[in-house]
Write a structure and sequence with these properties.
- The protein folds into two domains: 210 residues, no CATH class; 84 residues, no CATH class.
- It has 16 helices and four strands.
């Protein structure tokens, strides 16, 4: 019992350690989040031991462990995609939440989709667990189910960083090779697929760590006293955006990290081989997020004049809830001449009197709802009231 608990926890700590290594430079380390993977993994591992040992299935303990890791990863990914409300937009360029061509549906819609997909996945796993295979009959279902992670990766990443023909089959190939190795240790189709899915995680992690971040490993192993200087990342690739060629996709340590306008890339001096600290990466992401919001607001202003309050309300809809960020963007619009409450109030009164006449009292109430001050209301209403 104790041995099984330790063995199950070891698998969970392996994935948790990778997650902490990968994400901690960009988001705060959380002990609860770190411990979540080991706890979920050991629960799944002990459950699989109980279920399949009772059925006397011929499954090696390592295959149980890989299957538990796969279920833990599936649970975490489904939680992030469908059920977690916080989308962490300012941390990751590619949405962690479920999205359709880069656009994240409403939280309620994600929950409904999540329940349907989670239920369907559970039914498939249960049905597969009831099936046993003999000889080489594992090949066809392994090929079919190995394609799913590749398709999922394209769905998640391609709308943001573009489709890469060489990257697409990687998950499929690694997972199928894993199935080839594991099929000798089990005759249960569900365990074969889950174990293969988990086994492909470790080569991917090794590739991303050793190939893309060797300098980070050396620093964390040998220079812990100078960690701030060690986690400098390197720009490894720049490419034009697929949907918008005026934007440049920036790959850091081999992984897509953010996209900026071509003008901003030149202004910031970003090029292949340039080192970036986590703080600068976050700053560039925050700048790009602000520019995207600014573009949305300009589109909002293009239909008709707006009051400052209307723009502030729209910024909240764009998830810009920090008053300082709102003020910064609004002041930028005012400086550019795009926002002017007095000009808006005059336009509003003229429009009302031309198409939908109102009394001075009604106009005053409507302008107040738009956030126009009393002094400005008096300036634009008085001439019409006296006439």
């Amino acid at each position: 019992m104790i041995y099984n608990l330790i063995f199950g926890l070891s698998g969970g700590f392996a994935t948790a350690s990778w997650g902490a290594f990968k994400d901690s430079p960009y988001e705060n380390f959380s002990l609860l989040s770190f411990l979540r993977s080991p706890l979920i993994t050991v629960v799944y591992y002990m459950g699989l031991l109980t279920i399949f040992t009772g059925n006397q299935s011929n499954i090696h303990n390592f295959v149980y462990l890989f299957s538990a890791i796969a279920l833990e990863r599936l649970t975490q990914e489904y939680w992030k995609a469908f059920f977690r409300k916080n989308q962490r937009k300012n941390i990751y360029k590619i949405p962690q939440s479920f999205h359709i061509f880069g656009k994240v549906p409403t939280y309620t819609t994600r929950i409904i989709i999540g329940i349907l997909i989670t239920s369907l996945t559970s039914v498939i796993i249960i049905l597969l667990s009831l099936l046993k295979y003999y000889g080489n009959y594992w090949i066809i279902p392994s090929i079919i189910l190995s394609i799913i992670p590749a398709i999922g990766g394209v769905w998640k990443d391609a709308p943001i960083e573009g489709f890469e023909i060489l990257k697409f089959p990687r998950s499929f190939i690694v997972m199928f090779l894993s199935a080839f190795i594991i099929h000798s240790y089990t005759d249960n189709l569900a365990i074969l697929i889950l174990g293969s899915a988990a086994r492909k995680i470790f080569p991917n992690h090794t590739q991303q760590t050793v190939v893309y971040k060797p300098h980070s490993i050396c620093c964390q192993l040998f220079s812990l006293n100078h960690l701030d200087n060690c986690i400098m990342a390197i720009i490894t690739r720049l490419s034009a955006g697929k949907r918008n060629p005026s934007r440049v996709n920036i790959y850091v340590d081999g992984l897509f990290t953010l996209a900026l306008s071509l003008d901003e890339v030149v202004k910031q001096g970003l090029a292949k081989g340039v080192e970036l600290s986590p703080e600068r990466i976050q700053s560039l992401k925050a700048f790009d997020d602000a520019e995207k919001v600014y573009a949305k607001v300009l589109n909002f202003l293009s239909f008709r004049p707006r009051s400052i309050k209307e723009v502030r309300d729209r910024l909240r809809e764009y998830q810009v809830k920090d008053p300082d960020q709102q003020d910064s963007l609004i002041n930028r619009l005012i400086d550019k001449g795009y926002l002017d409450d007095l000009a808006f109030a005059r336009w509003f009164v003229n429009s009302r009197n031309s198409f939908r006449p109102r009394s001075a009292l009604q106009l005053s109430a409507e302008l107040a709802q738009k956030g126009i001050s009393r002094d400005l209301i008096k300036m634009v209403i008085t001439p019409f009231g006296s006439s």
